[in-house]
Input
Amino acid sequence: MQEKIKDDSELWESGQLGASPEHMQPAPAELEKEIDDAMNVEAVTIRLDKALVADLKNLAKDDELAFQAFLRKVLTGYRDCRK
Output
C-alpha cells in the first residue's frame, strides 16, 4: 500500500516552514538582476507618508497581494486610465 503524502503547502505559504533565519541567505546580486530582467522590472525608491504606506499595506492584504505586487497593480491601473 502506498503511503499518503501529507499536504503541507499551507505551512510553507504561511511561513511556518522554510522561514527560519538560520536557513536564510540573500540571493546573489546577479540572480536578482536576472530575475528583474526576466520580469522587465526596475527597482525604484520612493518616500511616502507612513499613514499612506500603512493604508496601502492593508489594502494589499485585503486583495491577498504582496505589497509591491499591489503597488504595481495600482500604478499600472492608474497609468492605463490616463492613456
Helices lie at 9-14, 29-39, 50-62, 67-82. The mean pLDDT is 91. Residues 10-82 form one domain. The chain has one domain: 10-82.
